[in-house]
Write a structure and sequence with these properties.
The protein is mostly helical. The chain is built from ten helices and no strands. The relative contact order is 0.11. The protein binds zinc ion (ZN).
């Protein structure tokens, strides 16, 4: 029964994340106007707002103007409930479940924003740190698998790497290629994990990012000046760590 509930909640939240990722960068309120097609501005009917099903039924296009709905929206709608289910199987229902469900949802949203706009805002980064502080409080009360000190070591490590990256990018005068602001997300993410976990996350994210980058450049889909979005790879690294290594977190 709880599985069905998690799927429904996951679908509802995925739809919210997609809408949030479109509206927040454009500074459009979440309440008004109601959902609309960004191309022909037509207000969407209720049956066009059902996550996953609507996309499939409409073959990913607007009913009137034929606007192609980005496939990444569909991927987030499918993946969110699956991740909630997997998280429940691995973690159970307890305080870490809610903390990690929050982090995963937030990173999916940030991945959409980063792909779309090429950067994330200060408010987005603050949301990562807010959850990280909540996670630290849980660790203080002994409710997480890792201790506070381990998280703080990870935070220090990421802060060091961030400073080093800023210095290197400054010396190379290539601040455009990789947003320094986006890297600020890493120390905040470290607050949710122990030291070894964040090292694994950095490793998974960099390797996956590197492989994707090399593939895209060699297939000539992007040029060398292309700014790779960081968030999808951080989201992937975090999901792999939580779902595959939870006992060592
Ligand atoms: Zn349209």
């Amino acid at each position: 029964m709880i599985e069905l509930y998690l799927i429904l909640v996951g679908l509802a939240i995925s739809s919210f994340l997609v809408s949030l990722s479109y509206r927040v960068p454009l500074k459009i309120s979440m309440l008004t106007p109601p959902s609309f097609c960004p191309s022909c501005m037509r207000r969407l009917r209720a049956f066009e707002l059902v996550p996953v099903v609507s996309y499939l039924a409409l073959r990913g296009r607007c009913r009137t103007c034929g606007y192609s709905i980005p496939v990444r929206f569909f991927i987030v709608e499918i993946v969110t409930p699956i991740l909630y289910l997997a998280l429940y199987r691995v973690v159970g229902i307890n305080p870490p479940f809610f903390i990690y469900a929050y982090l995963i949802s937030l990173l999916l949203y940030l991945a959409l924003v980063d792909i779309d706009t090429g950067s994330v805002s200060v408010g987005d980064i603050a949301a990562v740190y807010a959850g990280g502080l909540a996670s630290l409080i849980l660790s203080l009360r002994g409710l997480t698998a890792h201790g506070v000190v381990e998280s703080l070591y990870g935070f220090g490590l990421c802060l060091g790497l961030l400073s080093l990256s800023v210095l290197i990018l400054y010396l190379m005068k290539r601040r455009r290629t990789l947003g320094v602001g986006d890297l600020c997300i890493l120390p905040g993410t470290a607050l949710y994990f122990g030291l070894y976990s964040i090292i694994r996350i950095l490793m998974f994210s960099s390797i996956l990012g590197l492989i994707t980058g090399v593939l895209l450049i060699s297939l000539k889909r992007v040029d060398r000046e292309f700014k790779f979005p960081l968030m999808p790879f951080v989201a992937l690294g975090v999901c792999i760590e939580i779902l595959a290594f939870y006992s060592k977190i």
